[in-house]
Design goal:
nine-stranded mixed sheet; D-Amino Acid Oxidase, Chain A, domain 2; BFD-like_2Fe2S-bd_dom_sf; alpha+beta; 22% strand; 3 domains; FAD-dep_OxRdtase
Length: 483
């Protein structure tokens, strides 16, 4: 009998699991895929938003600013990668400037300090971002904006939770939940789990999980956002996160740096029917490229590495749904779209308070260890790595990102099992460089084969039965260049 079972090991579920691990409780974290962070948590912009981004008076507004303030300490504890870069919302005409003033007013209402925000002129914009468009005539600046690696953050949260006693149940899709007098019985494809409380953090499938207990007084619909990632050669073009002032026609797209120095643009926003459709399309990628040039005109599309898409779990309520449902003991953490990554640590604390109010006794776990060492090792210019070196710390598996055998072995030794090359990628950055796994893909499979004692042919890149149709970057470049 678990005290709490959390359904969904994305960033929200993993953050809740880690927060609950601070107390003497038996906790289960249940995930339908073979790894954590395989849904919306792995495929987004990775922005740690300023509090201004959500409307004052909403849960998003309350939790975004609280979550943002927690990132520095979390990164010091969990070593997932976070940079406080600051960010700009650009205005290109007088109407946009009116929007900036409304943005400033909302930021103050939400609780953003006047010392953290200002509206700046063209000259100040150029000081911060030399490569920004000359058409930008003003900007709202927020110093608390930052960037993180969303999948590395989620993995760090889940890993630390497991190290502190949480039971992680992977490949355990929930197919039914029954409420008994004083506990729930959760049926997965593998087993039946009994739990006094259940937290629904199932992301895009949260409405489906809620319907199992007739607690689905909302719907989740997928909003697809497509992105383009560029090589690090383009990383110098932005120092901060650059937004565009929204208008009735468009919310604009973002141009940003990543924690590892890549240049990235996106997303668009497409309401789609299928909850697993993370395809990318030429029409939408072309739109993203054209819109991004309004902010940063001179990026080189020949330096594109890949396109990808993620699905935001939008709810029919229009705000985060964080509450005890009509079924006592069944807690909703649903509809967590943007700014979900930013808000997740604060969401976790709110869920724990709701559980406590519902009757869950919280006694401090004095053995809780908040620290988790990072996996990725930053290399100095003097790093003497070689291909096929006998020393794992010098043996380079991924040439583009100088990922060593030792780093992959470290990832494999952690408390979350790894089965696919993409799981290695999310932890070490192998496969993310210029060659896009043409060099390291087979080497990673050989290493996994050796360490897991599985035939190379059985090592998969990913577990999903559905393989999205992603634009081939070489074909995309040809098509763009031909126009």
């Amino acid at each position: 009998m678990y005290d709490v079972s959390i359904i969904g090991a994305g960033v929200v579920g993993s953050a809740i699991a880690r927060e609950l691990a601070k107390y003497n409780l038996d906790i289960a974290l249940i995930e339908k895929e073979s790894d954590v962070s395989t849904g919306a948590s792995k495929a987004n912009t990775g922005i740690v938003h300023g509090g201004y981004v959500a409307k004052a008076g909403t849960l998003k507004g309350e939790l975004c600013i609280k979550g943002n303030a927690m990132y520095k300490k979390l990164d010091e504890e969990l070593n997932f990668g976070y940079q406080k870069t600051g960010g700009l919302v650009l205005a290109f005409d007088d109407e946009d400037e009116k929007t900036l003033r409304k943005t400033y007013e909302n930021a103050i209402k939400v609780g953003q300090s006047e010392a953290e925000i200002e509206i700046i002129d063209k000259d100040k914009i150029k000081e911060i971002e030399p490569h920004v468009s000359d058409q930008a005539q003003a900007a709202f600046y927020c110093s608390t904006i930052g960037v993180t690696s969303p999948f590395e953050f989620t993995i760090a949260l889940a890993e630390n939770a497991v190290d502190n006693g949480v039971d992680l149940k992977l490949e355990s899709e929930v197919i039914n939940i029954e409420k008994h007098s004083d506990y729930f019985e959760i049926e997965t494809v593998k087993e039946k789990v009994k739990s006094r409380y259940v937290v629904n953090a199932a992301g895009i499938y949260a409405d489906k999980v809620a319907s199992m207990l007739d607690a689905d007084d909302f719907e989740i619909y997928p909003m697809r956002g497509e992105y383009v990632v560029f090589s690090k050669s383009q990383g110098h073009l932005v120092n901060t996160v650059i937004f565009q002032a929204p208008n009735p026609k468009t919310k604009g797209v973002v141009t940003t740096t990543t924690t590892h120095g890549n240049f990235m643009i996106g997303p668009n926003a497409e309401e789609i029917d299928k909850k697993n459709d993370v395809s990318t399309t030429f029409k939408e990628i072309k739109y993203i490229i054209d819109q991004s040039r309004k902010s940063i005109p001179n990026f080189d599309t020949n330096r594109m590495l890949r396109t990808f898409a993620g699905l935001r779990p939008k709810s029919t309520r229009g705000d985060f749904i964080i509450e005890e449902s009509s079924v006592k003991g069944f807690i909703q953490a649903a509809g967590i779209d943007s700014p979900g990554i930013t808000s997740s640590p604060a969401i976790a604390k709110k869920v724990v308070k709701i559980l406590n109010k519902s009757g869950l006794e919280l006694n401090e776990n004095k053995d809780f260890n908040p620290f988790r060492p990072g996996i990725t090792v930053e290399k100095s210019e003097n790093f003497a790595g070689e291909i096929d070196h006998q020393d794992p710390e010098k043996n380079i598996i991924c040439r583009c990102e100088t990922v060593t055998e030792a780093e992959i072995l470290d990832a494999l030794s952690r408390s979350i099992p790894i089965k696919t090359t993409d799981a290695v990628k999310r932890r070490t950055r192998a496969k993310t460089g210029e060659c896009q796994a043409n060099f390291c893909g087979r080497r990673i499979k050989n290493l996994l084969s050796r360490e897991l004692d599985i035939a190379v042919e059985q090592i998969k890149d990913r577990d999903e039965d559905y393989v999205p149709e992603r634009l081939d970057v070489f074909e995309l470049k040809k098509k763009l260049n031909s126009k």
